[in-house]
Structure formats: structure tokens, C-alpha cells
Design brief:
Blueprint: E1 6-7, H1 36-51, H2 59-75, H3 79-84, E2 89-90, E3 96-97, E4 110-116, E5 119-127, E6 132-135, E7 143-144, E8 154-160, E9 169-174, E10 189-192, E11 200-201, E12 214-220, E13 228-233, E14 236-237, E15 240-241, E16 246-250, E17 258-261, E18 266-271, E19 279-283, E20 287-291, E21 299-303, E22 309-314, E23 317-325, E24 330-333, E25 341-344, E26 357-360, E27 368-371, E28 375-378, E29 386-387, E30 402-407, E31 415-419, E32 422-426, E33 434-435, E34 445-451, E35 458-462, E36 467-470, E37 476-480, E38 488-490, E39 502-509, E40 512-518, E41 531-533, E42 549-553, E43 556-560, E44 564-568, E45 575-576, E46 585-588, E47 601-605, E48 610-613, E49 624-625, E50 635-641, E51 644-652, E52 660-663, E53 671-673, E54 682-687, E55 695-699, E56 702-706, E57 714-715, E58 726-732, E59 737-742, E60 746-751
Parallel strand pairs: 1-34, 3-37
Antiparallel strand pairs: 2-60, 4-5, 5-6, 6-7, 8-9, 9-10, 10-11, 12-13, 13-16, 14-15, 16-17, 18-19, 19-20, 20-21, 22-23, 23-24, 24-25, 26-27, 27-28, 28-29, 30-31, 31-32, 32-33, 34-35, 35-36, 36-37, 38-39, 39-40, 40-41, 42-43, 43-44, 44-45, 46-47, 47-48, 48-49, 50-51, 51-52, 52-53, 54-55, 55-56, ...
């Protein structure tokens, strides 16, 4: 992940700038290449490339083994260390305010949702990578339940009433069904018999294993509670899911599983409420399947080759089933699948291989909700549909990109909608909505930055929720509307008023970076936020990444594509800093703004190269390739020792090989280090400003710490949810804290004082 400077200014006041359409319109008016579907594909490609998933056939297995090893290490920690050691503390967003926007506060992407039968106040919510949450007050407050699960991506939920709410049975399927290899985060199926307080894995063993990395749906057979069906996708291999996708069946509450449908990735599975012999399933590229023997055998009831297929059954009439496809079709059967009728075509308003969902009113089988970019309500089985919110903008009542719609089974006028922005509820049949996001911490951060004077003030770029900022009162708020938000930086105060400037990046456009700038400390000292687009004059198109490489120091901002360009912080034109590279720039080092020495800067590329210049300021020398000794994997981050830019660390994208390299001579030679780092990709690295022997690495399963200059590492995860995806790390000197940006869990902070490792090395007895 690209490094960010410890910033000297933070945003305290935000006004939305409608510079882009987050869901439908182009980022730049008239630029038709920037439809949302293209952005979804670029995000999927970024996710795969950063982890090298196109060439990692055992990524999910490596991750699973790394989590086992992590827990073995943590189990050896001494009780004394566990008592006195600092713990990670959540810093939000919980959630983020959108200033005057109609839909109110937003959180993050929702994948699954369940409500207790007979009590709408008790709800469970599953997020993309922010964990499993529960409310007992209808969403006024939430409690995270997934701190000890091996995945924070919750793709499916099944809630079964117990004798009391405390005895409810909850089944949880993990993994992110959105697209691509996000299912790499999955860890199978869990069961709780105490309403989510504790969980036990239910994935079988040996030849009877549940071989799904993403679980999209869970169904329980009426009258036979130990018989369940689970639908999902297999492990990602070489960029696509394996032949283990499909539907699995158990008759012993998940101790043993048999695959009963092997024709493709399955999105939905349902049992008939009244007849346990009948079950329905949706399989991508195949259509709707039906079973009449309790899910043992299946036959195609309605064929369809769309990339994504959803189904819904009517509670009030078990013969009525709907199919909704990414091709825009809504089909219906009213006779249990004997015949089907086409109710609508063209019912997709965009990116329906990403966001697609349907539900049927429990009291009226002709009344349905469907969701794609926006949610729609129909009273004639989908033949005509009324949008329940406006298109993207400040008057929209629900954040778009809809992943879950649900009619209350207890109230005829209540319904819920889950989207990329969180959860919304209507109590009047969809006429008005209120957000239910207070207390949810689900933001998927690509990057964070800190105020050097007060690290409780933060900036961050988030998936589908633009760039945002945090005040010291723990209020996070929108800074500028950009769809996804990426890098956020602030120019250090160098005595020339450059510290007044802040920068942020968003979607590259026409193969050029998209950079915004604020010239008034981004509102820190009063006045409305004012961001404007930075000129691309002088830039050469090509190579700018989804998360564009950018850094700022000593009065200049640097951006990387196929080569590196430089512009004065207050400037309007870019100039080249040297020759083009062999592959595009992915990350920069975080240059130390202190001192007067020439500015040594490092750039890492997607092709595994590292380049350096001994002085990146005007008149400095060209870049030198210093890659000899590295393993050629994509560079994910670069960090230098504070006050000594000749000592540099590089993380690379690999599961099984060396993940961290160190040089003490500005890259003239490299030493592979990082013993103890887990078998997942290393996303971020940073060196303690107070102790150069203390090095931190952010990984897909949490933060790891070294106290011997990167030679060995141990988990640093106390207080942070297990298996947290850490994309960025920042350090503040006073107070001395480390801050982590999670892709799904928001921002987290931990104190670095006192340095307990002077007493306990990694928390183990010596």
C-alpha cells in the first residue's frame, strides 16, 4: 500500500462536491469510460494483482495455515504480558456523516442480513470485510460478534429461533461474493447455539469437507433440523473459482458434507417452508434448479446463462418463485416450476454482476423488491418497477449499490435495504428511509493519514465512500465525493505555507491520475472545504494505478505512472523527474520531511522493480534501478528509517517466498528478512520513529512487529479482530502511537509507549 506522510492538517468541515457520480455517472462529465461497472472491474483486478492471486493456486490454504500458526504463537504469550500490553483501539468511522445528504450517515458494504422471527429489534448483519454484528434495539446500536472468527467477510446468515433469544441458533457463512477472488477471505461455515456469543466451525473433514471459500446462502430443512443446504463458490485458482463450487448438503449439522450440485457458483438456496422435500437454488450461468427429495438430486427448472442469478420464494404461496438475473430478466413461476413467465427484461440498471438482490413481500406474492444500483419496488411481480430513491446525489435516500433487500415478516410496512454504504430501514413501505448505521465500523480503507500534531485526527480513502476525515471528537465526515477514495496526503509545513495544502486521489481518468487539492488546510482553521482538480498539464499518459502512487514533501508533490512526475505543491504544471521505468509505479517511499539533506526517494513498481534517486528535487540525478537481489514480485510498500534514508525496507506480494527485504546502503544490496511473517501478502511496512529496530508490517491477517530491525516478527494483534485486513500503517511521534487502516474494519490505534519489548521480547518469557 502506498505510504502517506504524517500530515499537518486535518479536515473539520465538509461540504459535498458533486464531481463524480458514485454509482452511475462518469467521474468527469462526458468521459464515458468511467461507468461504475468499469470501476468494479478495476477494483477486482487491483485486489487480485496486489495479492498475485492470478498465480497463487493455494492462496486460501496459505491464509488458513497462517491463521493457525498465528494462534499458536499468540497462545504462548505470557499472562503478565497479556495483562500489561497495550491493545488496539477502534477509531471508527462508526459511521461517517455525509453532511447534508438525505441518506444520512454511511458505513460500509453489507453482504447479509437476518431478523429474529417475531422480533424485528433483534437483527444480525454481515459485512464485506468488517465482520458480523448484532443489534437488540432495531439498529440504534450494534455489537461486533466476529472478533474470534477466522474471517471478517460474512457472506450468509441463517437465524433459527430458540426457546429464548439467548438460545437462538445462528449459522454464519464467510467470504465475499462480490466478484473475482474476494472469496480468498472466506473460512467456511460456523454455528452458534447461544445467539452469537460463541461459534464452532462446521466444515466437515476429509472426503466430507465443505469445500467453499465463499458461502452465499444457507437453508435448513423443515422438520429435519440437522439437514442443511449451503450454496457458494470454491477456492480461487489462477484468477477464477474452482470446480468445488456449487451446493453442499449435510444431515448431521455440518459434521459431514456431500456436494449435490456441481454445475457452478451458486448464489441462493431455499427450502419450501411447508414441504421439506422441495428445495430451490440459483446457479450462475445455469438458472434456477429444483429438488423434490430434500436437496439430494436436482433438475433445471428455468434455464438462464446470466453471469449472476438470484431467486426468491413467496412465504404466502410456496408455488411462487422468482428469478432475477444480471442480464436484467425477472421471471416467475406460480405453479412450482411447471411453467415460467417472463415478467420483465432490462430490469438491471447497471453492474448487476456485482449488486443484485430480490425479496418477496410475505403477505403479497405479487409485491417484490429488487436491487441493483438502486432499489426498486413492484406491485405487479416486477412487470413495472418504481425506484425507491433518486439517482446518485445529495437527495438520494439510500446509498446505492444494493446487495440485500428484505421485507419484514412481522410488519406489513417495514423493510430494509443493505448497500455499499450500510443499512437503511423504512417503516412506511419505502416512502421514507432512515439509516441504521450508528455503531457500525465497516469502512474499507485503502489508505490513511495522520495529523502530526494530533494523531486522533485522520484522513482516509475508502471503497465506494470517497475520502473522509476524523475530528478529535471521533466524528468522521465526507471531504469530497469521488466514488472510491484512495490516497490522502498533506504537505508538511516547511515554513513557506505549503502546509496549508492537502491532496487526495480518486479514479484515474483517460490513463491520467485524478488528483484533488485543497489550499486552506482543508478547512482546519475555518471556512468551507474547497477541493479542486489538479491540472494534468505536463503529465504523460500511461501506467497510473487504481490506487495511484503519490507522495508529497519539501514543497513538491510526486505522482507515478510509467515514470515519476513532480509539481510544486502550489503549482499547476508537472515535470518529469527522469526516464520511464520497466513497469508502472505502484508505491513510493514515505520521504522524511525533516532536515536539509537532498531528498532521497524510492519508487516500487508493479513488476517488482525498485528505483531510487539521491535527490528527487529539481536538478537531481535520474533514477537508478536497485532491484538486484529482490525476488521480482510486485512491490507493495517501501519504508525508510527515520532520519536515515539509506536504510530502507520493501514489502512484496507473495504468499510463500520472502515478503520483506532490507537494505542499509540505499539499495546497493538487499537482505531477505522477516522471519515469522505469515503466509499471506504483506501490504504495508513502517519503521518506528523512536526506535529504528522496531518495524511493523501490515498483512491480510493483522499487524506483525519486529524488535530486531526486521529480522524476526511476531503478531501484534491484541484487541484487533482476528484476520483483519491491514492495508496501511502510520506512526505519530507525540503521542507515540501506531495507526492501522483496515480494509473493512476502519481505523485502529495502539500506543507504542512504553516499549514493553524491553521487558518481554514479543511477549514471551526469556
Amino acid at each position: 500500500m502506498p505510504r502517506t506522510l504524517l500530515i499537518s492538517a486535518l479536515l473539520l468541515l465538509a461540504l459535498p462536491v458533486l464531481a463524480s457520480a458514485q454509482g452511475q455517472g462518469p467521474l468527469i462529465p462526458g468521459d464515458k469510460t468511467f461507468g461504475e461497472s468499469l470501476q468494479q472491474e478495476k477494483r477486482r483486478r487491483w485486489f487480485n494483482e496486489v495479492r498475485n492471486l492470478e498465480h497463487e493456486p493455494d492462496a486460501a490454504l496459505y491464509r488458513s495455515e497462517a491463521l493457525v500458526q498465528q494462534q499458536e504463537v499468540l497462545a504462548r504469550r505470557t499472562p503478565q504480558y497479556l495483562t500489561v500490553a497495550p491493545r488496539w483501539q477502534s477509531m471508527g468511522p462508526s459511521p461517517m456523516t455525509m453532511t447534508g445528504w438525505t441518506f444520512g450517515k454511511v458505513s460500509g458494504r453489507i453482504l447479509s442480513f437476518a431478523v429474529r422471527s417475531g422480533d424485528d429489534n433483534i437483527q444480525y448483519l454481515g459485512s464485506a470485510s468488517g465482520g458480523l454484528w448484532k443489534t437488540v434495539d432495531g439498529g440504534d446500536s450494534w455489537l461486533r460478534l466476529s472478533d474470534e472468527l477466522d474471517s471478517q467477510a460474512i457472506g450468509a446468515l441463517l437465524l433459527v429461533n430458540g426457546a429464548t433469544p439467548a438460545a437462538d441458533e445462528l449459522w454464519v457463512g464467510t467470504g465475499d461474493f462480490a466478484s473475482g477472488c474476494y472469496d480468498y477471505f472466506g473460512s467456511g461455515l460456523y454455528r452458534s447455539t447461544d445467539a452469537g456469543l460463541t461459534f464452532q466451525p462446521r466444515n466437515g473433514s476429509g472426503a466430507n469437507t465443505l469445500k467453499l471459500s465463499t458461502i452465499n446462502a444457507i437453508a435448513r430443512r423443515p422438520g429435519q433440523p440437522q439437514t442443511l443446504l449451503v450454496a457458494g463458490a470454491g477456492q480461487c485458482v489462477n484468477g477464477s473459482v474452482t470446480a468445488t463450487s456449487g451446493i453442499y448438503r449435510t444431515t448431521d449439522n455440518g459434521l459431514n458434507w456431500t456436494r449435490v450440485v456441481s454445475s457452478g457458483r451458486s448464489m441462493d438456496v431455499r427450502f419450501d417452508r411447508n414441504d421439506g422435500n422441495i428445495a430451490w437454488a440459483a446457479v450462475n450461468g445455469v438458472g434456477v434448479l429444483k429438488s423434490t427429495d430434500g436437496g439430494v438430486t436436482w433438475a433445471t427448472s428455468r434455464a438462464n446463462t446470466s453471469a449472476k442469478i438470484r431467486l426468491a420464494t413467496a412465504d404466502s404461496n410456496s408455488n411462487i418463485v422468482y428469478m432475477y438475473t444480471s442480464g436484467g430478466a425477472i421471471d416467475k413461476t406460480s405453479d412450482g416450476g411447471a411453467t415460467w413467465a417472463s415478467m420483465a427484461t432490462g430490469a438491471c440498471d447497471g453492474q448487476c454482476s456485482y449488486n443484485l438482490t430480490i425479496d418477496v413481500d410475505p403477505a403479497n406474492p405479487s409485491r417484490i423488491m429488487v436491487g441493483a444500483i438502486r432499489p426498486y419496488l413492484s406491485s405487479d411481480s416486477g412487470a413495472t418497477r418504481t425506484a425507491m430513491t433518486t439517482t446518485w446525489g445529495s437527495t438520494q435516500s439510500v446509498h446505492q449499490d444494493i446487495h440485500h433487500v428484505y421485507f419484514s415478516r412481522n410488519s406489513s410496512t417495514r423493510l430494509w435495504i443493505g448497500s455499499d454504504g450500510g443499512l437503511w430501514r423504512s417503516n412506511d413501505g419505502g416512502a421514507t428511509f432512515t439509516h441504521r448505521n450508528d455503531g457500525l465500523t465497516l469502512t474499507q480503507f485503502y489508505d490513511i493519514a495522520l495529523d502530526r500534531r494530533d494523531p486522533d485526527r485522520m484522513l482516509g480513502g475508502a471503497q465506494d465512500n470517497s475520502s473522509l476525515a476524523r475530528s478529535t471528537s471521533n466524528v468522521w465526515f465526507l471531504t469530497r465525493t469521488t466514488g472510491d477514495g484512495f490516497m490522502n496526503l498533506s504537505a508538511p509545513d516547511d515554513g513557506a505555507n505549503n502546509g496549508r495544502y492537502t491532496f487526495q486521489t480518486s479514479y484515474p481518468s483517460s490513463d491520467l491520475p485524478n488528483i484533488s487539492r485543497s489550499s486552506n488546510y482543508a478547512g482546519l482553521y475555518g471556512g468551507a472545504i474547497s477541493y479542486s482538480s489538479v491540472s494534468t498539464s505536463g503529465l504523460v499518459a500511461g501506467g497510473y494505478q487504481w490506487v495511484t502512487a503519490m507522495t508529497v514533501t519539501k514543497g513538491y508533490v510526486f505522482v507515478g505512472g510509467n515514470s515519476v512526475f513532480r509539481m510544486p505543491v502550489t503549482g499547476s504544471s508537472w515535470s518529469s523527474t527522469g526516464s520511464a521505468f520497466a513497469s508502472p509505479v505502484a508505491v513510493f517511499s514515505d520521504p522524511d520531511p525533516s532536515g536539509t539533506a537532498p531528498l532521497r526517494l524510492y519508487a516500487g513498481t508493479t513488476g517488482g522493480k525498485v528505483y531510487t534517486t539521491s535527490n528527487a528535487l529539481p536538478g537531481g540525478p535520474d533514477w537508478t534501478d536497485i532491484s538486484a537481489g529482490l525476488n521480482g514480485a510486485r512491490i507493495t510498500d517501501i519504508a525508510t528509517e527515520h532520519g536515515n534514508a539509506s536504510t530502507v525496507y520493501v514489502t512484496v506480494s507473495t504468499f510463500t517466498n520472502t515478503k520483506l527485504y532490507k537494505s542499509t546502503n540505499a539499495g546497493a544490496s538487499w537482505t531477505p528478512v522477516g522471519s515469522g511473517l505469515p503466509g499471506v501478502t504483506a501490504n504495508s511496512v513502517i519503521v518506528d520513529t523512536a526506535n529504528p529496530l522496531r518495524v511493523f508490517v501490515g498483512t491480510d491477517i493483522g499487524v506483525y512487529e519486529s524488535t530486531d530491525g526486521g529480522a524476526t516478527f511476531a503478531p501484534m494483534t491484541l484487541g484487533m479482530p482476528r484476520a483483519s485486513v491491514v492495508l496501511d500503517l502510520e506512526i505519530a511521534a507525540n503521542p507515540h502511537v501506531l495507526v492501522a487502516g483496515l480494509y473493512g474494519g476502519g481505523a485502529w490505534k495502539i500506543s507504542l509507549d512504553p516499549d514493553l519489548d524491553t521487558i518481554f521480547v514479543d511477549g514471551f518469557e526469556q
